[in-house]
Request: fold
Amino acid sequence: MANSKDFDTRYELREFPFANGADGEPTPESLAALDAIGFGFHESTPKPEARKRKVNELIADEAVLLGAYVRKPQPGSVDETWPAGTFSWFPKALSWGDGTSINTQAISDVTVRPTERRRGILRRMMTQALERGVADGYAIAALTASEGTIYRRFGFGSAIRERNVVVKRAKALPFLAPTSGIVSVVTPEYLVDGVARQVFDRFDERSIGSMVRNTGSWPLVLGTLGRDGEPAKDTRAAVHRPADGEEVDGYVTWRMVEQPGGQTGIEIIDLVYATDSAYLSLWEFLLSIDLNDVVKYNRARLDDPIVSALGDNRAYDIEHEEDHVWLRVLDLPAVLASRPFAVDGSLTIAVTDALGYAAGTFRLEVTGGRGTATKLSDETDAAGADLALDVADLGSLLLGAVSPVSLAAAGVLQAADPAAPLLLRSMLQTPRAPHGITFF
Reply:
């Protein structure tokens, strides 16, 4: 890996917001950064109008680009205009599931050109971005990762896991308990005019770990645009209303897809619900659609109630489970003060942090469901604390999806008294599993 001097000799870091120029068109540096990001994620080259739309979506999200530019590019190389490494961030609220939230530095678009690997680009970009995040007042950073082994060394811990599931239609119905409300088929366009966002806001408020969506994700999940920038032609939609009212409290978008072995299935694109009743009813509707064999959903939460609702729970298969949201604590007292707790208690926690932001020994006091974390020392006093762990593991614990008892069993959380992890588990317990259906 290159040292700091080598890095500065070869690269220049530039930071700027995505923007339009005086003529209303995207600035050349914004378009070049967009092209570099698309190359890094193997995306096809969009048409000019799609590039302009994407830049304007990033402007709406208040996205900042940090790029590593080669100082002396080879003739004809894209490095003459493109950054060799890209990194962006923007503000994004993370829900605590009780109507409160915390603003996060949401990190995205992390790429490094293969020609520039192992030269310290990612570390330099990450270090500068987190420093800027602290300066801008963020108490926590977040990201969703395309690779699961990159970010722990920077203090990020996997805080939400999601499942890809398949439900076999032939075994699923009838449900063990009757559903309620009214499901209606609608056009995707019906959802665009405020309906979908109103339902998402209610879902977001009740779902710990949920994060507000990027501007550019809405046309994709509602089916008004495909990933190629052209209008989607295969998206269908339905909504749920409670029996005693007209307000939509859930919606689903889906498409029909061919499955392995010649089966036909429904692939859920977006399933958003403000009530458990809406969730169950929309699933029952999908499983009632003729001429399909299975329903696939790639955003199922770990405590999915459908498993208990099915007439035969063997109809439910888990195809894959993986990390979704990763969290990185930057200001531990601020983060813990923002979070609700299930039970009261007091613990001393020693935190190691290679980058220094959350390092130290802290006293967590929870009274009436609200916590106060007081820093006792800048030193990590593992011997004198009830619990000792790395900041990455603290990030994993924050939403309650990962148990401190499990981390103790794994050897990454130290506790002299086995009662301490049990107490912390009770304090962090949530009404339902953390759930996020937002990618960024």
Summary: The CA atoms of residues 120 and 210 lie 32 Å apart. Residues 4-138 form a domain with the Aminopeptidase fold (CATH 3.40.630.30). The chain has three domains: 4-138, 162-321, 331-428. The chain has 14 helices and 19 strands.
